[in-house]
Structure to design on (120 residues):
């Protein structure tokens, strides 16, 4: 006959296995993000961009490269602020004791800065 401790351990093992199964099932059955959602967040996939770039005449590519370099230089302060925002989110996440409101606020600031850069 099993001891009381053995029964508790077996019950715990069964409960843990059930929880792992439920959690794993939920993770595996999550729907793929819709392409429109991915496009809105990340823009077109790189293969689409490369195909469009290849179709441009060389003078247009040269002009676009020049404009993109200029824009990249102009966005330096924005990129630095985005980097600082990411650091603030990281620090808020590691803060002891954990402050959910601070983390949420830092994340909102980071997301706003990211969206602003994406619009540019």
């Amino acid at each position: 006959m099993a001891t009381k401790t053995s029964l508790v351990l077996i019950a715990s093992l069964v409960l843990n296995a059930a929880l792992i199964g439920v959690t794993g099932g939920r993770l595996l059955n999550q729907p793929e993000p819709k392409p429109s959602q991915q496009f809105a967040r990340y823009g077109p996939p790189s293969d689409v961009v490369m195909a469009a770039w290849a179709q441009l005449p060389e003078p247009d590519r040269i002009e676009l490269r020049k404009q993109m370099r200029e824009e990249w230089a102009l966005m330096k302060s924005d990129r630095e602020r985005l980097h600082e925002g990411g650091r603030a989110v990281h620090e808020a996440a590691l803060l002891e004791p954990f402050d959910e409101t601070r983390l949420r606020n830092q994340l909102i600031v980071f997301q706003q800065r990211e969206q602003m850069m994406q619009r540019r």
